[in-house]
Amino acid sequence: MFSLRGRGLWVAASLSRQHLPSARLSGDCSAPGSPHFDVVVVGGGHAGTEAAAAAARCGSQTLLLTHRVDTIGQMSCNPSFGGIGKGHLMREIDALDGLCSRICDQSGVHYKVLNRRKGPAVWGLRAQIDRKLYKQNMQKEILNTPLLTVQEGAVEDLILTQPEPGHPGRCRVSGVVLDCWGLNQVLHAKHKFYPGRGFTSVVPPPASQAEGPEFDGRYQKKKKKFYLCAVLPNPMDGSAVHAESVILTTGTFLRGTVVIGLETHPAGRLGDQPSIGLAQTLEKLGFVVGRLKTGTPPRIAKESIDFSILNKQTPDDPSVPFSFVNETVWIKPEDQLPCHLTHTNSAVDAIILENLHLNSHVKETASGPRYCPSIESKVLRFPNRVHQVWLEPEGMDSDLIYPQGLSVTLPAELQQKMILCIRGLEKAKMVQPGYGVQYDYLDPRQIEPSLETHLVQRLFFAGQINGTTGYEEAAAQGVIAGVNASLRVSRKPPFIVSRTEGYIGVMIDDLTTQGTSEPYRMFTSRAEFRLSLRPDNADSRLTFRGYEEAGCVSQQRYNRAAWMKSSLEEGISVLKSIEFSSSKWKKLIPQVSISTSRSLPVRALDVLKYEEVDMELLAKAVPDPLKKYTECRELAERLKIEASYESVLLCQQQEIQEVQRDEALQLPEDLDYLSVRDVSLSHEVREKLHFSRPRTVGKPKTTKVKNSNTEEEEMAKQHYGLKKRMKSFD
Amino acid sequence: MWRELRTLAAWGPRSLCTAPGATIFALSSGRGRCGVAVIRTSGPASRQALRSLTAPRALPLARRASLRLLCDPRSGAPLDRALVLWLPGPQSFTGEDCTEFHVHGGPAVVSGVLQALGGVPGLRPAEAGEFTRRAFAHGKLSLPEVEGLADLIHAETEAQRRQALRQLDGELGHLCRSWAETLTKALAYVEAYIDFSEDDSLEEGVLEQADREVRALEVALVSHLQDARRGQRLRSGAHVVVTGPPNAGKSSLVNLLSRKPVSIVSPEPGTTRDVLETPVDLAGFPALLSDTAGLREGVGPVEQEGVRRARERLEQADLVVAVLDASDLASPSSRDFLDTIVAPLAHPDPSGSSPRLLLVLNKSDLLPAEGPHPQPGPHPHLLLSCLTGAGLDGLLGVLKKELAVVCGDPSTGPPLLTRARHHHHLQRCLDSLGHYKGAADLALAAEALRTARRHLTQLTGGGGSKEILDVIFQDFCVGK
């Protein structure tokens, strides 16, 4: 281990030298036995799996490196996906053919759309997920993805070479160094070519166990359909994996520390080793590192809870699937599990307040999320209040209940004591204590909207490493990083989602232009163009671009989105063309009070705007052209939504065009903000620009909106000044 | 829930069209009084703007100067006879559809046209430098021109900053900022309800609180828009009301100022019994001059009605010209007038809503040539003889100063633009609040509030989604 660490340090230290000794740095790519991939993804969490699958979908030979294959697809915190704002991300991930939405449709135990009464633009698709099923389904999906290889291994270091000309960055990543000593085994899947499907990591079982040097029996037992060959590589040669692009999705593992009470011990997740060497390497490379914290609640034994006295929440009937390609979910509403609601009380407050001295996590300076706060911070910030605790099932056959809202880092015995104070939990048994995690993140202003880092070419970051929280946020970044890592290999322009196109764009723009000082979570209120960026239309926003520009979307999905788009357009023009007087409408649909103040004929589209009217009702009144639009339920619903927002969207479109126009004015990537002359920029602003490297003129402008007044003025100055430079650089 | 009972019926087409991507307009020539003023528009609605101001005439030929009568599309009132140019894009300065209105340079005309343009759907006043920006965006500026762009725009930004500062100085600025804060809070409540209410225990009545705030704001905006009629005054003229005790020479003054016999003049007190209005040009400013009945008690019912109307007119005045008989200052009617009318006006209440006052002592020809002149108390005054015209120049000079204050002096800054901007944004803000109340869909309601807030913050500066989130986190305990 020492020799490898030493190498990493040397590499990092040598970067400051003028001439990089390329022969030693670049490694020997053609060395036999040294594996080579287009894209290497480090980490098998929600960001990593999506990144690996996306890169593979784009046609790159991809390697997913993870500490343990059996934790791929693990939901480390809450047993749910989606929610308000997050549901939007799920739909957008799905529109780009990502995995998690489809897998949630196969693994949920309680599907519910939040915000039903508040308007379709803010509906929050959400589901309680069976952890075990999700993991199984995700592993099945990952291990069956063509071009994708999975390997166990801990990445200790990066292999760096001289930078490519024409791109910013001090050096370029060309692979990773594995810590072979820290792990028992490294799995290496054999590729097999399937006609029409390309390469795949699915291999038939070896004729005898003796055929491979070592065999990982775990997967063979669990699923009969796929097998992995385990190859223990030569410890010296196999320690390097060469790659054209590398994606780091380290989650909470970068110098991760788990905290319970006053005890802290290094771990990325309870029971898993943290990544310390990699964190050091990144810091030495010059990345600005920050520290964040998060937490997870204790788990409670299901049979020890008295549900009978608690409020029960039943799932939706019918269930709304996350994925555009699914008509329905795998489980019937009546077979789904309920959630229950209970509340904290003054006894809980008392235990927390009396034991603050035993709670080091709460006192730490690292920033925690304001919106998924620990029960301690809720009690401290809003004393004498009752807080909700949702009791959520962990799975169909799980004996555990996840008390949402009870994230806590008190010593375990006090957690148990606190739980017993809560209604319904008077006899509850705590199975696993809640704990806090503190971890390194890298200031996301150091990455491009493509998620490639400014400092190191072809190195991409996705997920919590960028300061976000949440499965969906991580997964969404994973897709973007995977697609871009692959596009980078094939020297195609990056795939960037604009703020005007999706929540993914809003999130990445917020992160890369403003950074974050607390774990970043998606909200609907972050999106300026919320009425356009709806869960229902994510496919028409992203699927076509994903298909044409990124190549990450399957033909089947593309066809479906294209059919939907043309049907919608046709439907809307038909609805616009049907015009009757309001008195005729009244006769046709007597149950709706159609405004008579207008003497002009009323379009069917305007009638559809009424809350009580849906396509079904309208088609009954005017069956001739409208009947066929009610045959597909999704189409009928989407027509209704389009009608409701029609007038407002017309205006928003103008605004969107304005933003897009600014975004189209690109700034040169290699512009040296520190030395550029003839632009009156203060030193401070130069540094800021040098750090965040806005890609387009639109960027400083959006930043401008959000900055304080003085900053705003400077940003405005810089904005115009840069335009001038930009032109002269042409 | 009560909100669900609302219907979407209130949503008309283009009801929220206030996007900054819209068509912009601005006074492009120098500000202040000049022979010809050029007002420009740029953007897709330019055609619509030109057509609605020049209705019912057809669109003029492209790139040909044509003479047209400009009318306010809402009221139909004629504004000016002007040269108009239709410059369809992309062969225009900005590359977009443009129009130019070459109007007479008077502030009333310019203000009128700007206001009329502000009323055309899809149009909004331009931000400083916006025309140049658009030209640049459409590749209309070549490299040498672009070299100078930064400086140019910097200068314009500076102008905009000064303009905003001037505009936001004092009471109005405070008002706008407090409105914006109210709106931020209301919006934060609605946003918190959207993003957090299902999963966390927000307090009860968050939405109702937002509604209350919005209702209060609406009332404030309405009264402000009705109250601050500075923009309105320029177009229809400032209300100048001539008042005084009977037989002080009010009608003589009106006739003198309007240079025509508007009122019957006689030595008999109480000749004028009704309010007589005449539009005049006073020292370059349009004014509506009102001659009123002399204020006195207890003479016949007709004159009493005249006195009542005179007092009513006084309430509406922007500028009160109080006329007294210089030779008769000691009389009870003069003393009474000084105490009840002049004194309160000379010490206006701090809200600034009371009219300005000009005290004129008429019949100076009756005063002895030598010796101390009579003093009407502590008030500043002017001496005038309607008979000889002595003192008229002095009066006109003072009138000009006073009217400049009332109407906003175009030579001291860009108040015309400021005013149009101000009015535009406040009105749109108010419209959006109306949409908020009419929306059943909370996402639409929030969008209406966002639009309303954007219009206020465009007046005050600052304000992004981060601020809203900050309010949410400050005020609510939210979690998943």
From TrEMBL, chain A:
Q: Where is this region: Disordered?
A: 693-730
The tRNA uridine 5-carboxymethylaminomethyl modification enzyme C-terminal subdomain domain covers which part of the protein?
A: 643-699
Residue ranges under compositional bias (Basic residues)? 693-704, 720-730
Entry's Pfam families?
Answer: GIDA (PF01134), GIDA_C_1st (PF21680), SAM_GIDA_C (PF13932)
The reply on keyword Flavoprotein is: yes
Question: Can the keyword Flavoprotein be found in this entry's annotation?
Answer: yes
User: What GO molecular-function term can you cite, just one?
Assistant: flavin adenine dinucleotide binding
SUPFAM superfamilies according to UniProt: FAD/NAD(P)-binding domain
Q: Might you name a Gene Ontology BP term for this protein? A: tRNA wobble uridine modification
Q: Sorted alphabetically, which Gene3D superfamilies does this protein's record hold?
A: FAD/NAD(P)-binding domain (3.50.50.60), GidA associated domain, C-terminal subdomain (1.10.150.570)
Record keywords, A-Z? FAD, Flavoprotein
Cofactor field: FAD
InterPro entries in alphabetical order:
FAD/NAD-bd_sf (IPR036188), GIDA_C_N (IPR049312), MnmG-rel (IPR002218), MnmG-rel_CS (IPR020595), MnmG_C (IPR026904), MnmG_C_subdom (IPR047001), MnmG_C_subdom_sf (IPR044920), MnmG_N (IPR040131)
Q: GO cellular component annotations, sorted alphabetically?
A: cytosol
Q: Which PANTHER family match?
A: GLUCOSE INHIBITED DIVISION PROTEIN A, PROTEIN MTO1 HOMOLOG, MITOCHONDRIAL
Q: Which family does it belong to?
A: Belongs to the MnmG family.
For this entry, the protein name equals Protein MTO1 homolog, mitochondrial isoform X2
TrEMBL record, chain B:
Predominant location category: mitochondrion
Give every TrmE-type G domain span: 237-404
What is one term from the GO cellular component aspect held by the record?
mitochondrion
Q: Where in the cell is it found?
A: Mitochondrion
Extract the SUPFAM superfamilies matched here.
P-loop containing nucleoside triphosphate hydrolases, TrmE connector domain
Against CDD domains, the record matches this protein to:
trmE (cd04164), TrmE_N (cd14858)
Listed Pfam families: MMR_HSR1, MnmE_helical, TrmE_N
Q: Which cofactor does it need?
A: K(+)
Catalysed reaction equations from the record:
GTP + H2O = GDP + phosphate + H(+)
Name one molecular function that GO assigns to this entry: GTP binding
Keywords in alphabetical order:
GTP-binding, Hydrolase, Mitochondrion, Nucleotide-binding, Transit peptide, tRNA processing
Q: Name one GO biological process term.
A: tRNA wobble uridine modification
Q: Provide the function of this protein.
A: GTPase component of the GTPBP3-MTO1 complex that catalyzes the 5-taurinomethyluridine (taum(5)U) modification at the 34th wobble position (U34) of mitochondrial tRNAs (mt-tRNAs), which plays a role in mt-tRNA decoding and mitochondrial translation. Taum(5)U formation on mammalian mt-tRNA requires the presence of both GTPBP3-mediated GTPase activity and MTO1 catalytic activity.
HAMAP family, per database record: GTPase_MnmE
The UniProt similarity line reads:
Belongs to the TRAFAC class TrmE-Era-EngA-EngB-Septin-like GTPase superfamily. TrmE GTPase family.
Assembly behavior:
Homodimer; forms a dimer in the presence of potassium. Interacts with MTO1; forms the GTPBP3-MTO1 complex composed of homodimers of GTPBP3 and MTO1.
| UniProt name for this protein | 5-taurinomethyluridine-[tRNA] synthase subunit GTPB3, mitochondrial
What organism is this sequence from? Heterocephalus glaber (Naked mole rat)
Q: Which gene encodes it?
A: Gtpbp3
